[in-house]
Design a protein that fits this description.
Layout (H helix, E strand, L loop, with lengths): L4 E4 L9 H17 L2 E6 L9 H14 L5 E5 L4 H13 L3 E4 L3 H14 L8 H8 L6 E4 L6 E6 L3 E6 L7 E3 L7 H11 L4 E5 L6 H10 L6 E5 L2 E2 L15 H6 L4 H10 L12 H7 L10 E2 L2 H13 L3 H14 L10 H8 L6 H12 L7 H7 L5 H13 L4 H15 L3 H13 L7 H8 L1 H15 L1
Parallel strand pairs: 1-2, 2-3, 9-10, 11-12
Antiparallel strand pairs: 4-5, 5-8, 6-7
Helix pairs in contact: 1-10, 6-7, 9-11, 12-13, 12-14, 15-18, 16-17, 16-20, 18-19
Bound molecules: glutamic acid (GLU).
The site of glutamic acid has 7 residues, from loops.
Amino acid sequence: MSDMRVRFAPSPTGYLHIGGARTALFNYLLAQQAGGTFILRIEDTDVERSTQESVDAILAAMEWLGLDYDEGPYYQSERFDLYREKIQYLLECGKAYKCYCTEEELSQKREAAIEQGSKPQYDGTCRNLEAQRPGQPYVVRFKSTREGTTAFDDLIKGNISFNNSELDDMIIQRTDGTPTYNFVVVVDDAEMGLTHVVRGDDHVNNTPRQIQIYEALGYSVPQFAHVPMILGDDKKRLSKRHGATSVMAYRDMGYLPEAMVNYLVRLGWSHGDEEIFSKHELIEKFSLQNVGRSAGVFNPDKLLWLNEHYIKSGDPQRLGQLLLEYLERDGVVTAEGPDAAEVVKTLQDRSKTMLEMAQKAAFYYEDELEYDEKAVAKFITAEQAPIFSALKEALEQTTFDAEGIEQAFKQVLEQTGLKFGKVGQPARVALSGGTSAPGIYEVALVLGQDRCIARLNKAIAMCS
Ligand code: GLU
């Protein structure tokens, strides 16, 4: 094990979105690569906005993507005693203070500060107010350093420096006694021994405030890496307007987790012009040095392309398991149908998503075939009845394997003197309900003898 300790620290106020999943993935890859530790920490100090449903959704998405963590999940809501202790310490050593100001007083201070071209100072009057306003709820503010600069070397963005005069005294404890994000994130990152904080660059502006808290509490400061945000194709921040942003919505749409992982990593990271990476390769090749400084643009077509790739090259057994889940979700009863891995083999080359595959596979399982009306009108007519009868007879008598099925069809062609299309296409409609199924021999083989005969009987009945 190396000393590297990284974390993913989502706030459970919604599903796991594309940006969060990418942050989690980057952290996971770094830890795996270094033989370090990947921690999951649920940042649920905002009691009003955090929900169990969201925690469950985040955990499910992490599991689906295979982002296994070594420690956690830790819940900040279970660590309030620790935060209280640290706030008490800052109060005692004068690095934080209780602020009793009313909203009105605060806005006056803000206005006065704007006039002077500086940030408001809340300290001073607040202390006096404590005695004057006993029993009144107060917030605790961190007394920030006003002189000089706070700088850090970001592993992605390079050196970033802030003028301390830009920082006001932020609230670290709300009136209800709960601590705030910028404070607890420091306590936890320090107490959990994190060596690297890799997160979205929406947190860059929080970093100088956090560094001051590290210093006030006597902690050493970790290395920071801020990952550029993800934009939609209109170069605006990725949002629902651009389609689904929830990772699990993509599972529901028939995407494979390996396609999603491969896609996410390329939203910001590159390795030459390579596009396809297994998780194993990513663990080997990923590095923060190759994460770009500019925003990644979400491209659904590329995700679809990757998904198609992974479906084509996927293991039929595994895809078969997934296929059954999608079919059942669509209400198709699969218990007595053909072997799913065999079904997958006939559809892997023709499906971009598992959902599409499930739609195409339904005919294999349906007891009552859904027929395409146009195909029926054209191919299941009185004229075709003798073809179906001949085919049925031949399929009944043949050894029902790939070779035997082909033989049966050839025999019918000889008997009737027809070209292949004249037999194959009606047979396809009879066996699959439409004209777009995979090769007829494959379909027959996967369906099995009994189902083929039953479906030909049905077609014969429909002809009259
Ligand atoms: N909980 C924060 C968020 O969801 C992330 C905190 C961090 O990574 O520092 O945005």
